[in-house]
Amino acid sequence: MKFPKTLGKLAVERDEIEQIMHQQFSSMLPNGTHSPYLIVIPAFNEEESLAYVASKLPEEINGHRPMIVVINDGSTDKTEAIANQLGLNVITSPINRGQGASLRTGYLEAISADFEVVAIVDADGQWDPRDLEAVMKPIITRNATISQGSRSLGETRVGDRFRDFGVVFFAKLIRLLTKTMVTDTSSGIRAMSVEMLKELRLNQPQYQSSELLISALISGGKLAEVPVVMEPRFGGVTKKGKNLRYAFSYSAVVLKTALREHFITSVLAHTKTARTQPEHV
């Protein structure tokens, strides 16, 4: 298992592609003061559902008009063109890197531009953007540092028993690993404090929802969950792969992240204790 070279946090450090996307994002920022809220929509070949999702985006959150950006992950269909037609901000990766990489880009931009809260909603239409205000509220009111919609507290209408079992299984597993009450570990609608994001290590190019959640909770983050309804895809096809492959890959990310975070937490605690020990003369 490869641990980070340092015990560092999510810093504003970008690879070559992220630098290209950073330039795109910077050109969209208004001069002067901007909204404290950023909504990120990761999208890869979602031409069938993007307009539907956009039609439900909130115009205002807590008295502010949020900045909304679609992160186009190297789509080969009309996703980028449709986003532009809808008048949405779009930053585009020249290649497909995975949802986790797209979200990391969004997180880095939220940090560098000094947003206060960043929210995520998937572009496939399974999660209702009208729930964003309720999901963001615990962060805005400082009652939590990470918040997510939960289909377990609400309802799922997808009709996939294998996935439903997986939601319950991984919730119990992550509850055990983090000692935190969790009911949904792969929600496609969530929000977090940008200050908290600065404390995290996020390396996964895919399945980053579990890495984010575990890293946040083991680092001392406070979780809020909001009941939501998960619908079948509005259009297009899933990019997660078949159920067994998805379950195996997701399990690997969960275990790897938990081991990494507990290791780092243990080292940091040991270092802090050593520094506070009185000197003997």
CATH architecture: Alpha-Beta Complex
Number of H/I helices: 9
**How many distinct beta strands?**
7
The largest sheet is: 7 strands, mixed
Q: Provide the helix percentage.
A: 40-55%
Q: Strand fraction band?
A: 15-25%
Ordered list of secondary-structure elements with their pairings:
Blueprint: H1 16-28, E1 37-43, H2 50-55, E2 67-72, H3 79-85, E3 89-92, H4 99-112, E4 117-121, H5 132-140, E5 146-156, H6 161-178, E6 189-193, H7 194-197, H8 208-218, E7 223-230, H9 243-276
Parallel strand pairs: 1-2, 1-4, 2-3, 5-7
Antiparallel strand pairs: 4-6, 5-6
Helix pairs in contact: 6-9, 8-9
Overview of this protein structure:
The protein has 281 residues and is of the alpha/beta class. The protein has one domain: Spore Coat Polysaccharide Biosynthesis Protein SpsA, Chain A (Alpha-Beta Complex). The protein has helices at residues 16-28, 50-55, 79-85, 99-112, 132-140, 161-178, 194-197, 208-218, 243-276; strands spanning 37-43, 67-72, 89-92, 117-121, 146-156, 189-193, 223-230. The chain has a seven-stranded mixed beta sheet, sandwiched between helices. The longest helix is centred in the C-terminal third of the chain and has 34 residues, at 243-276. The model is unreliable at 1-8 (pLDDT under 50).
List the main descriptive attributes of the protein structure presented here.
disordered N terminus; alpha/beta; 9 helices; 281 residues; Spore Coat Polysaccharide Biosynthesis Protein SpsA, Chain A; 41% helix
